[in-house]
Write a structure and sequence with these properties.
There is one protein chain. By secondary structure, the chain is mostly helical. The chain is 24% helix and 5% strand. The chain has helices at 11-16, 68-73, 118-127, 133-137, 148-154, 157-162, 176-189, 192-196, 250-256, and strands at residues 82-83, 86-89, 206-207, 222-223, 266-268. The strands form two sheets. It has a three-stranded mixed sheet with strand order 1-2-5, with no helix packed on it. It is globular. The protein starts with 10 loop residues before the first helix and ends with a strand.
Length: 271
């Protein structure tokens, strides 16, 4: 891995970043993953994430608060990705003459589906806080991908609060007030034991006791997915995101300079 430190040695981080297959690994994700309008608009297989799905969420999503080790890497930047000694450029550039450089983020698969579910993005950003929204977008097919603002909107404060997921990426310039208020409401509805154990098991969808893989005769060991105010189940990406065109206004230009294009030889990430 291209980074070292206490958080990076977390076994869950190491496993989620694993790209090589082990003898007992499945050949595809064991649970359903959303597919876009074309069959290849789907998150490419990552063996270390093979068992992630909506009813088997990554364990990191049940952690209430980040650790000190996580906070130490929250604002660090990922290095550029290199192959054969040259930088790798985005595979689906808005401007083919000036593709942006890809960041070396082992936790990310080569391709991310434009209709991937909200919990996936939240899990990835918790496991590797260096991942930015643009890192997701640059790995999506150009035709239907959302811009970074639309992607962040999917993970609105309402979505996180409905699932009892605190926003971990809080700084003074990242919507601190609204997210902090939502975080406080989450704290208030959890029990003292949950807060002491730093867990949202029993409030976040999934097994309450993860060691007991039975929901129980009356679902007493299971928290169901809540419904949104519109009746849509949280965790399902709205199909209205299909066909969203890349923004071409000044904001889009500013967004593209976050990882500015450079001149010289490069590898284009082949998917």
């Amino acid at each position: 891995m291209s980074w070292t430190g206490p958080w990076q040695q977390n076994p869950e981080v190491i496993e989620a970043s694993r790209s090589h297959r082990l003898p007992n690994d499945p050949v595809d994700y064991t649970g359903p993953r959303r597919v876009g309008r074309t069959a290849d608009d789907r998150t490419s297989f990552k063996p270390g994430q093979a068992h992630w799905h909506k009813e088997n969420l990554p364990a990191i999503l049940y952690q209430l608060n980040p650790t000190r080790a996580w906070l130490e890497v929250r604002d660090k930047k990922a290095p550029n990705m290199y192959r054969n000694g040259v930088t790798v450029k985005e595979p689906y550039p808005d401007d083919p003459e000036h593709p942006r450089e890809m960041k070396d983020l082992p936790i990310l698969p080569d391709r991310i589906g434009t209709q991937e579910e909200e919990w996936y993005f939240e899990a990835i950003r918790r496991l590797d806080p260096r991942v930015r929204w643009i890192d997701f977008v640059m790995r999506m097919k150009k035709e239907d991908r959302p811009d970074t603002n639309a992607l962040q909107w999917r993970l609105s404060r309402g979505w996180r609060e409905a699932l009892s997921l605190k926003s971990w990426h809080l700084t003074s310039d990242r919507g601190r007030t609204g997210n902090a208020t939502a975080n406080n409401r989450i704290d208030a509805r959890l029990s003292q034991r949950q807060r002491d154990d730093n867990t949202t098991r029993g409030a976040t969808p999934g097994y309450i006791d993860p060691h007991n893989r039975s929901r129980g005769p009356n679902n007493e060991n299971w928290v169901p997915w809540p419904k949104s105010r519109t009746g849509r189940e949280w965790g399902i990406a709205p199909k209205t995101d299909y066909g969203r065109k890349p923004r071409k206004d000044a904001k889009n230009k500013r967004r593209r300079t976050e990882y500015p294009a450079t001149e010289g030889p490069s590898n284009i990430l082949k998917l």
